[in-house]
């Protein structure tokens, strides 16, 4: 482990000077002078430094005591809601990879994890680029060479996730040969989610048909074809206009043909193998379908883990034996391009499920990681519990304002960049390069500029083959 003072175990000394000189002192920071380590996202745990994942290095020089070049870690003991913002190409998906590498079981031991107990994760992979987490970067690939050189500089070894599973919906391109089919069960979709998917209000005639149909089919396994049969039966609808039934029939039939739904589809419980990373490759789906899948996953997660933790607490209170039935204690749900899944200005199936997820998630051991290039376009009700932020380069003022609003600590007041004094935080964010961000958490007196470390597994911007 590198949370130590032994030089052989240290990360490379890659940052010894900086063009970013912050004038505001860091009056509060979780700093461990042994080995020069800074810990973010940590509730006080005394001298216990387990469950830390390596994020990168402090990139700013600071007035007063400077931490330039110190190693930055994120504590994963307690659930987080992490919010990553930045323009195209600023390093958001890269960060998601860095975080997932840090919490997952790796093919071989790595100093990027300090006593981490692997955590199960589910990635909503809207661009289908995270399958590479299962592969180490390769010498034979031009684009990987730069990454391998970077890893050497940082004194890190290439690695890959030991248990990564890739799921694709029917009809999507496959190329690994190991992809699993992703279908969802119609019974897992609630009436309001069907309505959001079909662009209907719950209290509209079509919304009423959906609600009544689901009620009639009950809690059994059923196909969309069974919904269509029920809707098509005149005797079930003495008072409902035929035109409304026809309209909903056409839409549902369209969904039946996509094969995205099946009575024997995925049960979220099957994804919850301890320490496994489940990558849902959704690039070829319509945005509303990406949103629906996210809704089903999020809602099932808080149901399953909520029940699990309640049973666990009761068993412990009454000192009874606890049968864990394989459910993990902790799960991370990771959503790239979150504004696509939960947009602000449209009804989307995922919205209420995610609002609920963040409200109830902490007690159920659930973390959420959201990345977006358009903070102003994301439904901000899901951001109420954000406790860690990664703020990359942004350009538009509306996006900067929306991102800064969610930083759980103070932003920077004055920073000198290349000889110029910047006094507006938006201007500071505008000058950042890819892989650089202000990291904010409640344990630090203000956000701190960090250089994110290289990925140890292949990054999905290019192919490892
Ligand atoms: N920490 C880093 N170290 C080295 N290179 C990085 C780092 N972060 C990002 N990059 C470089 O920047 C490129 C873009 O990063 P990434 O794909 O994460 O952008 P993004 O913010 O997700 O963009 P988009 O909004 O288009 O998805 C990467 O392919 C990589 O080359
Ligand atoms: Mg991206």
Describe it.
It comes from Rhodovulum kholense. This is Helicase HerA central domain-containing protein. Residues 82-300 form the Helicase HerA central domain. InterPro entries: HerA-like, HerA_central, P-loop_NTPase. The protein is α/β, with parallel strands linked by helices. It folds into two domains: 7-182 and 266-452, Rossmann fold (3-Layer(aba) Sandwich), CATH 3.40.50.300; 186-258. The protein is 29% helix and 17% strand. It has eleven helices and 19 strands. The strands form two sheets. The chain has a 15-stranded mixed β-sheet that branches. It has a four-stranded mixed β-sheet with strand order 5-1-16-17. A hairpin with a 4-residue loop joins strand 2 and strand 3 (37-40). Helix 3 runs antiparallel to helix 4. The mean pLDDT is 93. The structure holds adenosine-5'-triphosphate and magnesium ion (MG). Magnesium ion is lined by residues 92-93, 336.
């Amino acid at each position: 482990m590198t949370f130590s003072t032994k030089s052989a175990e240290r990360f490379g000394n890659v940052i010894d000077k900086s063009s970013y000189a912050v004038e505001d002192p860091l009056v509060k920071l979780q700093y461990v002078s042994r080995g020069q380590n800074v810990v973010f996202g940590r509730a006080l745990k005394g001298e216990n430094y387990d469950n830390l994942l390596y994020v990168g290095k402090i990139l700013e020089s600071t007035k007063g005591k400077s931490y330039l070049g110190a190693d930055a870690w994120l504590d994963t003991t307690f659930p987080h809601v992490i919010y990553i913002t930045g323009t195209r190409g600023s390093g958001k998906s890269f960060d998601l990879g860095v975080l997932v590498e840090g919490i997952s079981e790796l093919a071989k031991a790595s100093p990027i994890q300090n006593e981490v107990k692997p955590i199960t994760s589910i990635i909503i992979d809207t661009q289908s680029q995270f399958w590479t987490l299962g592969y180490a970067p390769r010498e034979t690939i031009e684009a990987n060479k730069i990454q391998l050189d970077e890893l050497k500089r940082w004194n890190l070894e290439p690695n890959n996730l030991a248990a990564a599973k890739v799921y694709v919906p029917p009809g999507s391109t496959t190329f690994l040969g190991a992809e699993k089919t992703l279908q969802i069960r119609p019974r897992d979709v609630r009436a309001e989610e069907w309505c959001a998917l079909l662009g209907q209000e719950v209290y509209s005639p079509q919304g009423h048909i959906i609600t009544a149909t689901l009620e009639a089919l009950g809690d059994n396994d059923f196909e969309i074809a069974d919904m269509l049969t029920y809707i098509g039966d005149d005797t079930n609808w003495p008072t409902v206009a035929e035109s409304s039934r026809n309209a909903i029939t056409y839409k549902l039939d369209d969904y039946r043909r996509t094969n995205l739904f099946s009575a024997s589809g995925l049960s979220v419980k099957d994804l919850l193998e301890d320490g496994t990373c489940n990558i849902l490759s959704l690039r070829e789906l319509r945005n509303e379908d990406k949103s629906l899948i996210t809704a089903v996953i999020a809602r099932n997660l808080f149901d399953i883990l909520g029940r699990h933790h309640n049973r666990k607490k009761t068993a412990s209170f009454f000192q009874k034996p606890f049968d864990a039935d394989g459910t993990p204690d902790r799960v991370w749900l990771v959503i790239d391009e979150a504004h696509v899944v939960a947009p602000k200005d449209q009804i989307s199936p995922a919205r209420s499920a995610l609002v609920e997820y963040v409200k109830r998630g902490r007690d159920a051991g659930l973390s959420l990681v959201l990345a977006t290039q358009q903070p102003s376009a994301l439904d901000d009700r899901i951001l109420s519990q954000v406790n860690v932020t990664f703020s990359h380069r942004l350009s538009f003022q509306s996006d900067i304002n929306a991102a800064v609003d969610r930083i759980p600590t103070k932003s920077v007041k004055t920073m000198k960049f290349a000889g110029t004094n910047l006094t507006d935080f938006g201007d500071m964010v505008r000058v950042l390069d890819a892989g650089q961000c202000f990291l904010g958490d409640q344990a630090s007196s203000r956000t701190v500029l960090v250089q994110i470390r290289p990925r140890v597994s292949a990054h999905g911007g290019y192919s490892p083959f």
